[in-house]
C-alpha cells in the first residue's frame, strides 16, 4: 500500500475456532503470503539458516511451548494460516517470532559490507505516533513503517469473536493480526511501536509480541487491554498506544521482560513516540533514526488532526524523515484514530495529502 496499491480487506465472519480463522485468512491471501515469504530477506538469509542449526532448536521449542500453552487458540490460528496458504509452518512460525529469534542469531565477525546489509535488513520495526487528548481533540495518529519487503504484503482482516464482538486488524502477510494497529467493537483500539532493548534485556523462549497483540484484539475494555499487555512474561518489550473510545482516554504503555511496564496517560500536550522507551527505565539501543524523529517532532506544533497528519508526513530530515520513502524503510500507511468520531482512517501516500483509503467505524 505504501507504493500506492490498494489495501485489500477480508471479512472472515464468525469462525468455529482459531484454526478455521487462520485457514480462511491463509486461503484468501495465499498468493500474498507466499510472495512475502519469497521476498523477505531476513527470513531467507537469517531466520531459516539459523533454524536449521542445533543451536536454534531449544530456543524455537521453548518459544513454541510457551506461546502455544498460553494462547492455544492463536497458535491454532497460526497453523491454519500456514495450511491455508500452503506455506511451510516453519516459515510462518519464524516471521511471527522474528523479534524473539533475531537477537540470538550469532553475528558474523567478518565481512563489514555483509554485516551492514544485515543490519539494514533487520530495520523493519520503525513507527511514529502522536497522541493528544484535549477538550477539543482526542486522537492518535500513527505511521506504520516497515521494511521494503512488506510493500504490497499487508491486508485488513475482520473477524467475529466467540462473544459476538468483532475486530478489524491491519495485518502483515503470514502473521497473526495485528502487529501494527487495529480495533474491536468493544471500543478498544491500538497502535504499536517497537522499542530496542539491549540483548541482555531479552529473555529467550518467552512470550512473543505477535501473540500479545493478537490477544489485545479481544480486549473487553481499556483495563482489560492493559492487563493483556502487562501480564505476559514477554521475551522482548513493546510500546502500546491504547485507546478507550467510549471513555475518551488514550494511554501509552511501555513493557519489557521481567513483567516490567509503565503507563503514561495522553493529555493536551502532544506526546510523540518513536522507537525508543520514553518513560520505562530499560537499557536500550540508542537508535539515531528514532532520536532524530523525536527531535524533529519537538520542533513542530500539533493541536489538531490536520497538524498531526502534517507532522507524520514531515520529510525535513533527509537522512531520518518521519515519513519514510526508502530505500530500506517505507511508511506503508498512516492511520488516524479519532476517538470522538469513533473512526479509524487509513491514508495512503503522504498523509499531508489527505488521501483516505479506508474510513472504518469502530462502534
From TrEMBL:
Pfam families: AAT. Coiled coil: none annotated. InterPro entries: C45_proenzyme-like, Peptidase_C45, Peptidase_C45_hydrolase. Residues 136-353 form the Peptidase C45 hydrolase domain. PANTHER family: BETA-ALANYL-DOPAMINE_CARCININE HYDROLASE, PEPTIDASE C45. This is Peptidase C45 hydrolase domain-containing protein. The lineage of its organism: Eukaryota, Viridiplantae, Streptophyta, Embryophyta, Tracheophyta.
Amino acid at each position: 500500500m505504501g507504493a500506492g496499491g490498494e489495501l485489500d480487506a477480508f471479512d472472515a465472519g464468525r469462525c468455529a475456532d482459531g484454526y478455521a480463522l487462520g485457514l480462511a485468512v491463509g486461503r484468501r491471501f495465499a498468493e500474498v503470503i507466499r510472495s512475502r515469504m519469497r521476498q523477505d530477506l531476513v527470513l531467507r538469509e537469517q531466520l531459516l539458516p539459523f533454524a536449521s542449526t542445533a543451536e536454534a532448536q531449544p530456543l524455537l521449542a521453548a518459544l513454541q511451548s510457551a506461546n502455544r500453552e498460553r494462547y492455544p487458540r492463536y497458535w491454532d490460528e497460526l497453523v491454519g494460516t500456514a495450511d491455508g496458504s500452503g506455506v511451510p509452518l516453519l516459515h510462518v512460525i519464524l516471521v511471527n517470532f522474528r523479534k524473539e529469534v533475531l537477537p540470538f542469531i550469532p553475528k558474523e565477525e567478518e565481512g563489514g559490507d555483509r554485516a551492514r546489509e544485515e543490519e539494514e535488513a533487520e530495520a523493519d520495526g520503525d513507527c511514529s505516533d502522536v497522541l493528544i487528548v484535549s477538550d477539543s481533540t482526542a486522537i492518535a495518529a500513527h505511521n506504520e513503517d516497515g521494511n521494503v519487503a512488506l510493500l504490497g504484503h499487508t491486508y485488513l482482516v475482520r473477524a467475529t469473536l466467540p462473544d459476538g464482538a468483532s475486530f478489524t486488524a491491519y495485518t502483515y502477510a503470514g502473521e497473526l493480526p495485528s502487529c501494527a494497529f487495529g480495533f474491536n467493537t468493544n471500543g478498544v483500539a491500538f497502535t504499536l511501536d517497537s522499542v530496542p532493548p539491549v540483548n541482555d534485556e531479552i529473555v529467550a523462549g518467552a512470550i512473543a509480541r505477535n501473540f500479545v497483540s493478537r490477544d489485545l484484539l479481544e480486549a473487553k475494555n481499556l483495563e482489560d487491554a492493559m492487563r493483556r499487555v502487562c501480564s505476559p512474561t514477554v521475551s522482548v518489550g513493546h510500546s502500546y498506544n491504547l485507546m478507550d473510545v467510549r471513555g475518551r482516554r488514550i494511554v501509552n504503555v511501555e513493557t519489557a521482560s521481567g513483567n516490567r511496564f509503565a503507563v503514561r496517560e495522553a493529555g493536551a500536550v502532544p506526546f510523540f513516540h518513536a522507537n525508543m522507551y520514553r518513560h520505562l527505565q530499560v537499557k536500550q539501543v540508542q537508535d539515531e533514526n528514532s532520536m532524530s524523529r523525536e527531535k524533529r517532532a519537538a520542533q513542530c506544533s500539533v493541536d489538531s488532526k490536520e497538524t498531526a497528519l502534517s507532522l507524520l508526513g514531515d520529510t525535513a530530515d533527509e537522512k531520518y524523515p518521519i515519513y519514510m520513502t526508502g530505500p530500506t524503510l517505507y511508511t506503508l500507511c498512516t492511520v488516524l484514530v479519532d476517538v470522538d468520531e469513533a473512526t479509524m482512517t487509513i491514508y495512503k501516500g503522504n498523509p499531508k495529502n489527505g488521501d483516505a483509503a479506508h474510513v472504518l467505524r469502530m462502534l
